[in-house]
Amino acid sequence: EPSTKTRTVDAVIVGAGFSGLYLLHKLRQQNLTAVVFEAGTGVGGTWYWNRYPGARVDVESLAYSYSFSEDLEQEYPWEERYPTQPEILKYANHVADRFDLRKDIVFRTRVTSAAWAEDQRTWLVRTEHEDAVTARFLIMATGCLSAPKLPEVPGIENFKGTSYQTSRWPHEQIDFTGQRVGIIGTGSSGVQSIPVIAETADSLTVFQRTPSYSLPARNRRLRDDEIAAMRENYRAYRKAQRESGAGVPVEVPTKSALEVSEPERNAAFEAAWESGSLVNLLSTFTDFATNQQANDTAKRWIHGKIRDIVQDPQTAEDLCPDYPVGTKRPCLDTNYYETFNEPHVHLVNLKRTPLVEVTDKGIRTSEQEHEFDVIVYATGFDAMTGALTNVDIRGRDGLSLKETWSAGPRTYLGIGSAGFPNLFMITGPGSPSVLSNMIVSIEQHVDWVNDVIAHLDREGLRTIEATPAAQDDWVDHVNLLASYTLYPRANSWYMGANVPGKTRVFMPYCGGVGEYRKKCDDVAARGYEGFELAR
Ligand code: NA7
């Protein structure tokens, strides 16, 4: 590993996930020097940390992969439609090796602070190991779901059995045979891990605060002919991805859910359910995301599916969400609802019997104490802002990013923030990020940031900073788009609603990755309009 004591580089990159890896590769191609700090012992970011049983991506592998290298695209042997965490981690490692990235990555090292020095016009970046690096650019490639969150319940430290957190899962395989397991949380991590843990556990008790809408993934091995067809067509497919709404090309709906007959509507939902694709569900009708009545048709239909699958009527009711479909992140699963038909699997509805405390023996709700050998926390993240505000970032005049964002994140394009010169965020709040295929969004941001740095160097410019006016307009625009949708009606992590005390504001840009890309390209074409560039 490189020595970093008081080094000077062109750019410090925080995080060696898919953003950090590609950034490093791009900056090097411009002959810039960069150092990547990574808290983990390896590359892969999300796919390094989230090793829980059943962890998979819910965008198809042939689409959830880098497009920047045609050789990589043509050669990489994807095995499954929805690859497992180990398969994706293997891909990240392959990329790190293939492009010789490791030599500029410092592992086991968390960045703790970064301060802008106006005199030198550089960032001084410090880590937990007392490294101090000065850099012209600070690039936060820290991910949107990377600051884990435990439930707000007393006594977690008192439990005498074994505790696991899905996002901090140990590297070795865990055997649940003969164990009484309790799991808190029913987002994607809970929905994916519950069926797998249930396969071997003696008993599994699921503590659910809010149910998820989940679709069967219909995962399978990829066929040689479909891989060949995609490889043949990859350039056109990548273009379609970039121009799409969510980074996955999909047939654009033309009809309202309310203008078609019930059988026609149900057939559309059935087709989406059969397809095992979330984007297919979300694009069944034009007004799915904007009209409550239209959305209610999908909600009723999915409730029907849950009631068909789950035999115990009370359990089925408890599993039926009441918020609009898609306003919290929907899930893809393998045997999720079916698992609740197993006699050793139990559902506890925390809306009826809230969590009271974790005890030495297990979990106490308002109704009773449940005893466990193992507790699994699948309780999510301080999404989108947590990983950014956990670093003490100080911009111009000591301005704290965390403090200036206390009433919600404020960015221009989700890339820069006023008061923080030469700071870039990859897939920051105010960009489509979590509403899209992350790799498509990551590549777009990395390319854009790389281009702006090249522009600065070409023009002999030293700094770039979002203007307060452009930022205000962007924040208003992001809010306005959200206000046309049903998103604000759910208590989601998109809204910051899962973290007590966090300001409620819809954080991602919901106008689609295609529209967003055009805006970013326009800004660049007009000489980085809305940014101040200086010598
Ligand atoms: P999520 O989707 O944020 O899920 C976390 C779950 O944990 C969710 O069901 C929460 O209920 C529950 N939770 C959180 N805090 C508590 C407390 N205090 N008490 C009870 N239950 C709680 O995180 P995941 O890791 O599953 O998925 C993250 C993303 O990864 C996912 O959206 C995909 O993009 C991939 P709540 O809904 O807040 O009521």
TrEMBL record:
Its cofactor is FAD. Keywords: FAD, Flavoprotein, Monooxygenase, NADP, Oxidoreductase. It holds the Pfam family FMO-like. The keyword Flavoprotein applies. The keyword Magnesium does not apply. It comes from the Bacteria. Belongs to the FAD-binding monooxygenase family. This is NAD(P)/FAD-dependent oxidoreductase. It comes from Paractinoplanes aksuensis. The lineage of its organism: Bacteria, Bacillati, Actinomycetota, Actinomycetes, Micromonosporales.
